[in-house]
């Protein structure tokens, strides 16, 4: 298994991560729906995970994979908080469009 992964140069992993990150960035910049925001941030975090694992494989060190596990745990916490925010947006404004609430009020 390691021989197959070692035969792929790290540039391909970095190109894949850059593509996934750009898709996530495009989603954040063009969408106004809070659910799409969450999915786009997840894509950007997964691009960082691809980089961590690729460099971990390239250097033969497990530190990148440990950091990738921490990023996955951070992403799970981000989703839990994000879903709570989306539920509050929907309850208060009837929509999950982030441009509708212009100010925080009681």
Automatic annotation (TrEMBL):
Gene3D superfamilies: 1.10.287.3510
Keywords attached to this entry: Membrane, Oxidoreductase, Transmembrane, Transmembrane helix, Transport
Enzyme Commission number(s) of this protein: 1.6.5.9
Pfam families per UniProt: Oxidored_q2
Keyword Metal-binding appears in the UniProt entry: no
TM region positions: 12-29, 36-60, 66-90
Broad enzyme group: oxidoreductase
Single GO term (MF): NADH dehydrogenase (quinone) (non-electrogenic) activity
Subcellular location: Membrane
Main location: membrane
Membrane topology annotation: Multi-pass membrane protein
GO cellular component annotations of the record: membrane
Listed HAMAP family: NDH1_NuoK
Family: Belongs to the complex I subunit 4L family.
Name the record gives this protein: NADH-quinone oxidoreductase subunit NuoK
Species whose genome carries this gene: Halorubrum glutamatedens
Lineage summary: Archaea, Methanobacteriati, Methanobacteriota, Stenosarchaea group, Halobacteria
């Amino acid at each position: 298994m390691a021989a197959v992964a070692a035969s792929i140069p790290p540039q391909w992993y970095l190109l894949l991560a850059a593509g996934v990150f750009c898709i996530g960035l495009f989603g954040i910049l063009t969408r106004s729906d809070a659910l799409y925001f969450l999915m786009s941030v997840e894509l950007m975090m997964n691009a960082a995970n691809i980089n961590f694992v690729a460099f971990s494989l390239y250097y033969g060190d497990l530190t990148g994979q440990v950091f990738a596990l921490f990023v996955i745990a951070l992403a799970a916490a981000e989703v839990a908080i994000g879903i709570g925010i989306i539920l509050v947006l929907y309850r208060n404004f009837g929509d999950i469009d982030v441009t509708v609430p212009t100010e925080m009020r009681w």
